[in-house]
Structure formats: structure tokens, C-alpha cells
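Protein modeling request. Please complete all fields; requests missing the sequence field cannot be processed.
Requester role: graduate student
Desired output: 3D structure, C-alpha cell encoding
Chains: 1
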Amino acid sequence: MRIPAMAFAAVLAFAPAALAGDPVGKYAAEGTNPDGKSAYSGTVTVEKTGDTYKVTWNVGGTIYVGTGLGDKNFLAVSYKSGSDTGLALYGEDGDNWAGIWTYHNGKKVGAEKWTRK
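Delivered output (117 residues):
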């Protein structure tokens, strides 16, 4: 009985560390557009899809869907909504993620932070 209890305690001790850095989950998103003036907020869901990630944003009722590549340290996402396309790059920030993004043919970048729900 002692070994299973110790194993269970070890799993509990390392569970938060295993979650940190894993991009899969649901987030509140806050950011600024590339103009540097206008802010936005919404939600983001990240799902594992084989070797890639499906990233879905809902910002003011507009849905953006992207395909991401990365690991526990970074996530690069190409995204699309209607005729809008772009690229985003995020780095892990503890249990959250922060990054920059731009539209297709963009000359400036916006910033975005995801806070895990």
C-alpha cells in the first residue's frame, strides 16, 4: 500500500509542471492590433491534431481558425477568417502564452496574451 500512495503523491507533485508549457486548453485572449492603438479581447481554444495544433479564436463574434506547429516552448500559427489571413508566434509564459502576430503582407505586428481558463 505504501508504494501506490507514494506514486500517487509523486503524480500530484508533478502534475502542475506537466501542464505548464502545454498549449492545449482554453484561454481568455487580450491583445492590441498592429496599429498599436486598438485593443481587443476574446477566447482561444487550442487542440492537439496529430503533429499539429488547431487554434480557434473568437474575437467579437468573428471566428479565426489556425494551424499551429510547436512544442512546450513556442507555437507558430497560420490563421484565416474569411479573406483575412496571417501569422502568429507565441512563447510559453508559465501556464499562459504571449506573442506577436500580423496579417498577410503586414508591415507591423500586434501583441496578444492568452490566460488559461
